[in-house]
Amino acid sequence: MNIATIGTGFIVDTFLAAAKQIKDIHCVAMYSRNKETAQPLAEKYGIPVIYTELDALMADPKIDFVYIASPNSLHCEHATLALEHGKHVICEKPFTSTVAELDRLIALAKHKNLMLFEAITTLHLPNYQLAKEQLAQLGAIKFIQCNYSQYSSRYNQLLNGETPNVFSTEFSGGALTDINIYNLHFVMNMFGAPQSVSYTANKHPNGIDTSGILVLKYSDFIAQCVGCKDTNSMNFVLIQGEKGYLHVEHGANGCRKLILHANGRETLLNAQTNENLLYYELTAFKQMYQAQDYQQCHQLLDHSRSVIETVVQARQDAQIVFAADTL
User: What is the mean pLDDT of residues 37-53?
Assistant: First the structure.
């Protein structure tokens, strides 16, 4: 399984470190507009080729998969190019800016008989699967609270009058798409799509959300998802049922440890042994690829589409408009 990467941010470093731990996965090339930007990672992980032209990377016959970690607004363009060149795709979250973009990617991947994955760590974590297994002990679910807050290193730039990509409507940024989306995946993969969605956001004058609270209404319970890039917080998930509650430490992104409060006792649960969370998703993608398990791949795509649909509904509720909305 030979992979090429697009992007040079910290998440690419984490991805390459995970790939290094998994047998038969090799990073054989990188893309960056400036070779000097990619050089430190290429040297760190022994990657032999740095491309500065996307077409050249896509034409490389050694490459099976393209891992996309470019700015959010470019995900669809880069994934389309990779699929058109016969490459399987792993795309960082958020998958796309709009539902229409994702529909086009899914149709193209199926037409080409290629695998297309959203790199969302949560779904593939052992502790997330453990959390699902504890639901029966909680009784009827009544309320879910999620908080994933992380003061962005780019927020000070925004306050100083700059517009970094992560806080730009042009580049499909903001707290909802960058950070609260982990909470959405956590809740929706467990319980499906909500009946209604509302999003109340703290918005910068440029129209982007720097933090916000997303409320998902289901037939029998409410889920509250908080995502902030302008403050820090204790990150957690609480799933509250009539017979007990489950505390997910460090939130939906990491699921580092579970504490089950049920039957009059407290039980600690932890099935994760690897600190690099991307290790688990990459292992899952490798297994599906080797088994040619398109059914599971397509099930994940159905879930991702539902999440993107919910994100778009939330943005519309908060009147957050991306440049991609007008395309």
Answer: 96
CA torsion through residues 77, 225, 318, 166, sign: negative
Helix (H) or strand (E) holding 9: none
Confidence at residue 206, expressed as pLDDT on a 0 to 100 scale: 97
**Looking at the structure, do residues 112 and 193 belong to the same domain, yes or no?**
no
Whether the Cβ atoms of residue 236 and residue 145 lie closer than 8 Å to each other:
yes
Pick from 57, 62, 67, 10: nearest CA to 31: 57
- Beta strand pairing call for 50-51 and 2-6: unpaired
Burial class (CB in 10 A: 0-12, 13-18, 19+), 212: buried
- Residue 38 to residue 53: CA distance in whole angstroms: 13
- CATH for 35: 3.40.50.720
Instruction: Tell me which residue range forms the domain holding 151.
Output: 123-279+307-326
Give, in order, the Cα–Cα distances in Å from 46 to each of 27, 29, 286.
9, 10, 21
- Domain end residue (candidates: 73, 96, 116): 116
Identify whether residues 176 and 43 lie together within a single domain: no
For 66-98, the pLDDT digits (tens) are 999 999 999 999 999 999 999 999 999 999 999
Work out how many domains the chain is built from and give that number: 2
Give the list of residues 6+ apart from residue 264 with CB closer than 8 angstroms, or none. Answer: none
Give how far Cα 94 sits from Cα of 70, 90, 117, 209, 309, Å. 11, 12, 11, 15, 11
In a domain, 195, yes or no: yes
Q: Model-level pTM?
A: 0.96
Q: Where are the alpha helices (DSSP H) in the chain?
A: 10-20, 35-45, 54-58, 75-84, 99-112, 126-134, 155-159, 175, 181-191, 251-254, 278-291, 294-318
Nearest Cα to Cα of residue 149 among 126, 111, 131, 175 = 175
